[in-house]
């Protein structure tokens, strides 16, 4: 017997190692019940995240520094033309803004009449993406903000373009974000035109699908999907995805493929929604004349701060209170850098 | 008799290599770091499994089943820690790959590019098959087995293995 063990020592050790890991897996799977309050990360995970993420932060910030220096001081070709184009675009936006102000004012009045409760994003934290799992089987990213910045599990993560995911693990200065394309969970969505509600869920191959829409409903490619608020994670009305194509039916439901509103393959900065309020629009918001453009803009860009002087009605209302803020209006949202870790009172 | 000409031989005739402690610890960590960093910018990078290739390289170079499976387990568990899945899924897969690769290293010539492509290709398939089995049967994860994608990824890893192993050969020290 002893000879047998010695002869097959390596194979026996292999079996022992595998058995130990399977045992460890089984214990984690048993513990991974979201209803249990002691649902915590294993120590090994905390150690690895604590070692890897600071290095990632350093590499990413160095890369940004070099790129910014290049873009800001060296690579200035076409800046004048871009400036001219942006001025023209600004004029167009001002005209558009006046129309939006009227619509927003009317909407708020109606909401007040109906005592309609609305969800307001009242606080966000800007964070930088520093890494990923690097695995096809786990669609998670890491951001450079954690519990020290007020982040907690299940907080929604967005960009100005739309929804990104939710926080699944939080360390002191780092968090793990599960993307909406991961098959482990789903986001409540509503089709913008038809108002049909369903669940946007990732597939193992990395696609996003919209389920629970009955086969006799009419859905067309190109229609936008917004968050419905039904998942109790994302506030209602955030851009979630666009219908890409209708695939072969699955049973009695449509098989709808979506394209995420945010390009999840090129994430650099994200916003974590740390506080959402549910309330009726206040009397001031409906009675004091037209709504500020910043309010309308904030519906899509929660990081935009309120102008200090609430002037209304004129196109000048979009101008920030000071020239420094004016400079923050960037032509390319994807290249903007977060100015402050937290923003306050951003109604949407 | 030179090592390059050996196709099936005894352990004594094959070179056994060792690595400095810096390489032993640093290379797996660097592989994880690169995989994690590039994954956010270049999504196609997630097709490659750098930690797996590092596991294979160390296992075949040391030609020792014990260190092979220990290296595989160590790297796999670290890789698990960066995902949101239970820790141990990559650990189990890479322990087996480390054991198998070191067993192969004892028997075959693993120095020429052709055998390295085949190693990268086949061990990637083995790794995915084990991961798939663990995910389905132990963790109850729904992972589809897409032959086309898996074979393509296996080939990509096989080709990368040739380049990566050639670079990592410089870290070898004769035991």
UniProtKB/TrEMBL annotation, chain A:
Signal peptide: none annotated. Residues 315-333 have a biased composition (Low complexity). GO terms for cellular component: plasma membrane. The keyword Zinc does not apply. Residues 279-348 are annotated as: Disordered. Residues 76-103 form a coiled coil. InterPro entries: Cell/Rod_1 (IPR042177), Cell/Rod_MreC_2 (IPR042175), MreC (IPR007221), MreC_beta-barrel_core (IPR055342). Residues 129-273 form the Rod shape-determining protein MreC beta-barrel core domain. GO terms for biological process: regulation of cell shape. Keywords: Cell shape, Coiled coil. It comes from the Bacteria. Belongs to the MreC family. This is Cell shape-determining protein MreC. It comes from Candidatus Korobacter versatilis. The lineage of its organism: Bacteria, Pseudomonadati, Acidobacteriota, Terriglobia, Terriglobales. The gene is mreC.
From TrEMBL, chain B:
The keyword Transmembrane applies. Pfam families: MreD (PF04093). InterPro entries: Cell_shape_determining_MreD. Its main location: membrane. One of its GO terms (biological process) is regulation of cell shape. The chain crosses the membrane at residues 19-38, 44-61, 117-134, 146-167. Belongs to the MreD family. This is Rod shape-determining protein MreD.
């Amino acid at each position: 017997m002893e000879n047998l063990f010695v002869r097959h020592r390596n194979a026996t050790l292999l079996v022992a190692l595998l058995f130990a890991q399977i045992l460890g897996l089984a214990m984690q799977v048993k513990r991974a019940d979201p209803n249990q309050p002691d649902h915590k990360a294993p120590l090994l995970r905390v150690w690895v995240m604590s070692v890897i993420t600071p290095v990632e932060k350093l590499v990413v910030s160095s890369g940004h520094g070099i790129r910014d220096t290049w873009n800001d001081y060296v690579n200035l070709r076409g800046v004048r033309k871009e400036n001219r184009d942006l001025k023209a675009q600004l004029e167009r936006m001002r005209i558009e803004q006046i129309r939006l102000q009227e619509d927003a004012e009317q909407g708020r009045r109606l909401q007040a009449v109906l005592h309609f409760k609305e969800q307001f994003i009242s606080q966000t934290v800007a964070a930088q993406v520093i890494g990923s799992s690097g695995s096809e089987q786990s669609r998670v990213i890491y951001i450079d903000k954690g519990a020290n910045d007020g982040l907690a599990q299940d907080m929604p993560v967005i960009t100005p373009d739309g929804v990104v995911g939710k926080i699944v693990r939080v360390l002191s200065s780092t968090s793990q974000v599960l993307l909406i394309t991961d098959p482990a969970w789903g986001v409540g969505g509503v089709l913008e035109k038809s108002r049909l509600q369903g669940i946007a869920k990732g597939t193992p191959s990395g696609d996003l699908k919209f389920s629970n829409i009955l086969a006799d409903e009419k859905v067309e490619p190109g229609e936008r999907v917004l968050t419905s608020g039904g998942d109790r994670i994302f506030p209602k009305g955030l851009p979630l995805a666009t219908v890409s194509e209708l695939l072969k039916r699955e049973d009695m439901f449509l098989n709808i493929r979506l394209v995420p509103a945010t390009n999840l393959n090129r994430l650099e900065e994200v916003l974590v929604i740390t506080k959402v309020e549910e309330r009726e629009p206040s009397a001031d918001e409906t009675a004091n004349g037209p709504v500020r453009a910043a309010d309308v803009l904030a519906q899509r860009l929660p990081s935009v701060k309120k102008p200090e002087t609430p002037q209304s009605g004129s196109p000048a209302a979009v101008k920030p209170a000071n020239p420094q803020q004016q400079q923050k209006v960037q032509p390319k949202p994807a290249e903007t850098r977060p100015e402050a870790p937290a923003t306050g009172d951003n109604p949407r | 008799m030179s090592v390059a000409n050996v196709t099936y031989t005894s352990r004594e005739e094959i070179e056994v290599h060792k690595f400095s402690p810096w390489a032993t610890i640093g290379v797996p960590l660097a592989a994880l770091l690169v995989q994690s960093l590039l994954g956010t910018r270049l999504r196609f990078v997630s097709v490659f499994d750098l930690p797996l290739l590092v596991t294979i390289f160390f296992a075949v170079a040391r030609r020792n089943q014990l260190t092979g499976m220990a290296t595989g387990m160590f790297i796999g568990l670290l890789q698990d820690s960066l995902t949101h899945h239970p820790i141990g899924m990559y650990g189990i897969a890479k322990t087996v790959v480390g054991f198998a690769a070191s067993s192969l290293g004892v028997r075959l010539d693993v120095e020429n590019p052709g055998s390295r492509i085949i190693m990268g290709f086949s061990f990637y398939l083995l790794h995915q098959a084990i991961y798939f089995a663990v995910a389905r049967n132990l963790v109850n994860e729904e992972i589809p087995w897409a032959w086309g994608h898996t074979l393509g990824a296996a080939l990509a890893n096989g080709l990368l293995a040739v380049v990566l192993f050639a670079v990592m050969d410089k870290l070898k020290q004769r035991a």
